[in-house]
Amino acid sequence: MATARQDFERFVGWLYQEDKQVPADVRRLAHLALENFDMLAGTSRQRSQRASYLVELIRENLAQTADTPPQIQPDGVVDAWPWARLSHLTLGPFRGFLHPEPFDLQNQVVLFYGPNGSGKTSLCEGLEYALLGEVEEAGAKRIAARTYLSNVHAQCYEPPILKATSHQGQEIDVVANADMYRFCFIEKNRIDAFSRIAARPNNQRAELIATLFGMDQFNDFVSHFNESIDGQLVLSPAKQTELADLRAALETDKAIVDGEPDTRHRLRDEEAALAMSYAEGTDYAGLKELIGSAEAPGRLQELNKLLDAVPPSIIGVKRQTMLDAFEKAHQCQQDLNEITSELQSQSNQVSFKALYDAVLALQQTVGERCPACDTPLQGTVHVVANPYEKATTGLSDLRSLSELQQRQYNAQQALTQASRELREMMTRLENFIDQQQEQPCEAKQYLSGLSADPEGIWWATLYPLSEGDNAKADLLEQLLGIADSIDAQDTMSQHMQQERAPLVAERQRLLDFQLKVQAQDQKDKELADAIDKAKARIAAFDTDHAELISLAKQEEQDIIRDTGFKETYDRFLKELKSYREQLPGQFLAGLNEMALMLYNEFNQNDLDADKLASLHLPLTSEDKIEIAFRGNPTQMVNALHVLSEGHIRCLGLAILMAKAKSIGSPLIVFDDAINAIDHDHRRGIRETIFESEHFDRTQIIVTCHSNEFIKDIQQHLPRPRREDCQVYLFKHHTGDNQPRVVNNVATRNYIAKARAARETLNDREALGASRQALEMLSNKVWQWLVHHELGLLTVPLARAGAEPDLRNLCEALLKKLRKAHTFDHANKDPLIEAYGRIIAISESNLIWTYLNKGTHEEADRDDFDSDDVESVVQTLEQIDCLDFRRPR
Fold it and tell me: To pair with 202 at 20 to 30 A between CA atoms, which of 141, 145, 500, 741?
């Protein structure tokens, strides 16, 4: 988290700018966070972890924290670099290196190549730790440095030992300084992330620009500040509100006690009004006497006793009603007898009626035949008389008989009803006798002997009276006497019921007022209870709520304190986010021209109209990366909308290198960064970094797994820098868990290889390297002529699709140079002389056989002419000394 701490320290210094007008407590809070940075960075916003930790710090230390600006060197400003070039690194045990491994870094260009997993990343992380004091990847993954940096097999790590050469030529120790060396590193991951910037939402683009400069950790640190610390502060008067609610209830108690006289007076008025509503002139005490109680009975108890005696129910039997019932039953019997006699006199007609009914009933079954003889009703043979028509006519003639039969049925029903009514009346007589509990008599025995539903003329033994039948008359008279007794009792019951009605109404009224009096008395009781409880609560309030009173007082002070903390934190967080948004702009300030120039050189093969005429890098989070093309220099467009991913990667690399150059960095470390660039742009990047004068005084360290790119660097390095280049090869370990490091890798530069072969008199090898060198140099010359608009050559080809012979290409180049009479350049005459010398060697010479076709192991070959071979090598060395960089 060193870079994050550094950026946060700059933020603290930024708060002291005169135009900021930041309150002192906000600056103190920033100092407090800086003093506890490591602990604070270990917290997160989850479950308000950081807010809780920060509030604890604020309460304990904010008041004592000093308010003085930190001593910080402005970003990108280095008074004097303490050394001119790195000289030596000892690495291990550290990450992938189990044992100490020495590296000679004295050369201006140091190249490391090898397959993935062979130790290149560990090397770069060793340099990063030695220069910055930490490894960014460990912080990004939240892995402790001891765990991340330790070698797995050694279970420990030793800090790398890094030496440098001072400006006076002395070897000195390099002291880690993240502030000074943070822009020395250019990493593949940063360029990859920057290339994805176009696909991100606008609010994340500033973060990716920050990622380009290694601000990931600072962004992560800032993002874990909680939006608010209100949940950890005392800001709402919860205890005071609770106490206020209790005091409000206490005021209610005081109001109850103070209002007792008025409340009691009101209750007395209500009592008087209640008594007057019962009866004019009645007071409340008199009303309560009327209602009474078990101890002092009143009118209500008296009425209860009177009404508790229930009068007999009305039976409803009288002498005359009994006689009428007997007469009705007797008359119904006589009527039935008369009708029956009449029917008996017409008995023959009754048989015919039955016959006719039976015939008609068979009509539906028999149909068109006689029901008696089965003779058809119609046809050749048929009945004399239609039986169905005869039955219908007969029934019509016997209609009066049918009516007489109906009368008989009705008379029978009337007799049955009269019998039941008389029997029911006898039941009431029997019940009355049982209630009276009198001695058994003839009438009681008679009634007891009747069945519940007697049949026949059961009353004939009593009614009608026949002359001289004194026994029947006595029994009937006894029954009629019982009816008289019932009548007398019914009369008395009716009288009693008429007298009870006013008493029932009076009792009900008193019962209603009894409930009202009870409710009124309950009010008195409730008032007394409320007053007693209110007085008790008033007396015990301070004692019962002593703790709450103390907490409320403390809460009041806490709110005053924490309200200030809230305002301080809110302003602090606002300024911190504002600084984070502006920080990428601080890094990008002043880089427009340099980044534009580098971008165009990276893209040297693009059409001139597609190169940039202007570049505006964003200085705030709201700004965009705007560019204008040379084809339309007045139209500014959003670079992320129009540039391809490959061009965006080039732009990211150009910005990083422009930053390093702007601060005069003596070192740039490319951590696999070249592999982030597509093949179409690698040539332009290689020429810009290794062949131009932009970085000719900067030490360049490159790690790369591309064998061809390392070879191209060696081929095209200018001669002075070529001699100041060191190449390391990394190989996988062979079982000892230590990467194999080859530090004496022979140069792969063709001209150097040719000269080395000549020194050992190995002309075959010298010519083999010379062929490659001549091809490489001739292509470079041809490309140089293209830049000067002289690239159109006429070269004979042996067949379709064939490559031109090297001699033919050299002759074509020489011819173009000789005919370019108006072309004036310092390289022209040396090139004419050099190519003239090579072409002067006869085409049939064995040398050209090798130069054209390459060297092979062929039998019976003569030796080469050493002077001609030396001439070729010298000529190539002379061409190599020329400057073929494109015009700028």
Answer: 141
Q: Are 315 and 432 in contact (CB under 8 A)?
A: yes
Question: Which SS3 state, helix, strand or coil, does residue 727 take?
Answer: strand
State which amino acid sits at residue 330. Answer: H
Phi, psi of 221 (to 5 degrees): -60, -45
% residues pLDDT > 90 (the chain): 22
Provide the Cα torsion 721, 722, 725, 730; round to 10°. Answer: 140
Nearest to 602 by CA among 550, 525, 655: 655
More confident residue, 761 or 494: 761
Q: Which residues pair with 616 in a beta bridge?
A: 626
Exposed e or buried b per residue across 78-108, where buried means at least 16 C-beta atoms within 10 angstroms of its C-beta: beebbbbbbbbbbbbbbbbbbeebebebbbb
The whole-angstrom separation of Cα 845 and Cα 159 is 61
The whole-angstrom separation of Cα 24 and Cα 30 is: 10
How confident is the model at residue 722, as a pLDDT? Answer: 83
Q: What is the CA radius of gyration of the chain?
A: 65
**Measuring CA to CA, which residue among 750, 749, 696 is closest to residue 721?**
696
CA distances from 685 to 332, 565, 586, 823 (A): 141, 53, 26, 29
pLDDT at 765 exceeding the cut of 70: yes
Kindly report the number of other CB atoms within 10 A of residue 769's CB atom.
24
pLDDT at 861 over 70: no
DSSP 657-692: HHHHHHTT-SEEEEESGGGGS-HHHHHHHHIIIIIS
Q: 89-93, 221-225, 671-675: which has the minimum mean pLDDT?
A: 671-675
Q: Are 668 and 184 in contact (CB under 8 A)?
A: yes
H or E segment to which residue 611 belongs: none
Contacts of 700 (CB under 8 A, 6+ apart): 108, 109, 110, 668, 670, 689, 690
Tokens read off for 765? 């090898």
CA angle 332, 336, 337 (to 5 degrees): 115
Is residue 198 within 8 Å of residue 152, measured between CB atoms?
Answer: no
C-alpha pair distances (Å), 212 with each of 5, 136, 169, 216, 442: 18, 13, 34, 9, 133
Strand-pair partners of 97:
94
Question: Rounded to whole angstroms, how far apart are CA atoms 257 and 341?
Answer: 101
DSSP state of 864: P
**Peptide bond connecting 464 to the previous residue in cis, omega within 30 degrees of 0:** yes
At residue 401, does pLDDT exceed 80? Answer: no
- Domain ranges in the chain are 319-487, 750-880
Q: Which residues contact 378 (CB under 8 A, 6 or more apart)?
A: 368
Residue 87 has pLDDT above 80, yes or no: yes
Distance CA 806, CA 29 (A): 74
Torsion angle in degrees (nearest 10) through CA of 515, 516, 522, 523: 160
Q: What is the pLDDT of residue 171?
A: 93
Strand, helix or coil for residue 781? helix
Measured between alpha carbons, how far is 812 from 790 in angstroms, rounded to an integer? 12
- Structure-block tokens of residue 199: 């696909």
Most confident of 180-184, 404-408, 460-464, 850-854: 180-184
Going by pLDDT thresholds of 50, 70 and 90, the confidence category of residue 860 is very low
Cβ neighbours for 254, distance < 8 A, ≥ 6 positions apart: 534, 538
How far is 239 from 243, CA to CA, in rounded Å? 6
Cα 84 from chain centre: 54
What does DSSP assign to residue 71? -
317-351 pLDDT, tens per residue?
888 888 888 889 889 988 888 888 877 776 555 55
Reply yes or no on whether the pLDDT at 76 is more than 50.
no
- Cα–chain center distance at 421: 89
Dump strand ranges (E) for 106-150: 109-113
**Structural element, H or E, at residue 434:** helix 399-436
Residue 164 bridge partners (DSSP): 86, 172
